[in-house]
TrEMBL record:
Keywords: Membrane, Transmembrane, Transmembrane helix. InterPro entries: T4SS_pilin (IPR043993). It comes from Candidatus Uhrbacteria bacterium GW2011_GWE2_46_68. This is Uncharacterized protein. The chain crosses the membrane at residues 57-78. It comes from the Bacteria.
Amino acid sequence: MKILQWIPSMFLAIIPTVVFADDAYDAVTAGLGRAGSEAGYVTATSFAETVAGLIDVVLSILGVAFLILIVWSGFKWLTAQGDSKKTQDATKMLVNAVIGILLSAAV
């Protein structure tokens, strides 16, 4: 029972650590940007770099979606309990997920 009394105290002790991390991040990135511009590095990005960053984000989201579809189809397959229709649906979902990730990787 005493352990349950310590859990809220430990949680409250961790919260300020997370808050202070945000302040340090802003200070460090501002200092890095200033140091880079003083050293002669260009801080502005070109249109091509912006598009490349956008493509990176989209591919990351597609990767997460692929992972979710694979896990979901595996869950459906395992919980089919011998029902052939449910197994076929899970297999179809798995095949469609693989085809989708191959098409997005080909682009």
